[in-house]
Design a protein that fits this description.
mainly alpha; globular; about 100 residues
Length: about 100
């Protein structure tokens, strides 16, 4: 939620940061690092950005990198300040799911 909140706040200055959706919850990824960490009980944050970065221009790649940075900074700031303890876990389920319009 800290990453989501940080990106939503950044969207007021940069609308490209505002298209945030909940990653599909019905997939099993046991053969990936993400799945392996989850299977061992670790928390995981996945930042998946659109597009194949090798086909995007430098400015667009920079914007995607900045969006991930904003999310990570939101998480770290929230943990460091103690705000993470006051986030509503139920709010996670209110993040909108991906739609055909939000998919690359």
């Amino acid at each position: 939620m800290a990453a989501y909140n940080a990106l939503r706040a950044a969207a007021s200055k940069n609308p490209d940061c505002g298209n945030i959706t909940l990653y599909s919850q019905d997939i099993n990824l046991p053969g990936t690092g993400l799945g392996a960490f989850q299977l061992n009980g670790s928390g995981v944050v996945l930042f998946e950005v659109r597009g194949q970065t090798q086909t995007l221009g430098e400015q667009h790649r920079g914007m995607l990198t900045r969006a991930v940075y904003i999310g990570l900074e939101g998480i770290l700031s929230s943990v460091a300040s103690g705000q993470a303890d006051h986030l509503d876990p139920a709010a996670y389920d209110r993040i909108p799911p991906p739609t055909a319009a939000s998919r690359p």
